[in-house]
Each structure stands twice: as C-alpha cells, then as structure tokens.
Amino acid sequence: MSFSGSIAFFGVSDLSETDSFYRGKLELELYKDQGLCRIYKVPGGGMIGFCSHMAVTAREKSPILTFLAKDVDRWYARLKEKGTEMAGGPKTNPRFNIYHFFLTDPDGYTVEIQRFLD
Which of 1, 76, 89, 117 is deepest in the core (most CB within 10 A)? Predict the structure, then answer.
C-alpha cells in the first residue's frame, strides 16, 4: 500500500490575489477550484492548496514553501520582470549547500526558489 500524492493546505485572506501569485507569477497549474479552496500542481510531484476558510498562519512565524528549480537565476529574472518584490537576489548558502532566493506571497508566507548544489 502507498500514497498516490500529497497536498499541503494553507489559509489565505484573498483567493484571487493568491491565484495571481501562484498561477500568474510562479506559473503553477490550477488542479482544482473547490470554491473555498484552490489546489495547484507542483511540477515534480505533490500539490499545494490555499483555502479562504482557514486562518492565515504566516503572521506569527511563516512556513517556507520551497520550489526546486534547475535555473534559479532564470526564475529570479522572470519574477523580477513580473514586478515581484524579493528579499534579495540569489545566493549560495554553504550551510545547506544550496543556491536560492526568497520572496513573500500575498498572505506573508515565505516562498523560496532553490537548487541543491550537490
């Protein structure tokens, strides 16, 4: 017996604004619109869902939603072209042996675009 997939759900204050970020800027495919929740496919496996009936938890301490990418610099340039504010450019983190950058979604969740260096 095994699982057939996974979805991580997060609360949001505005589904339309969240959709503009995840589908418009991060280019995720909408898998299912359930009215109160929207679920997006994450390339490479798994899904991420956002629901307007759940509390936004980013206010205290944000979870980090990490998307793995082969070309981190290209994602940075693409997001910058779309007018996305980011916390700084891509950099190497020797502690975790990764190359990455951070941005924040409309509800304050931390989003990371990263590549493992090993």
Answer: 76
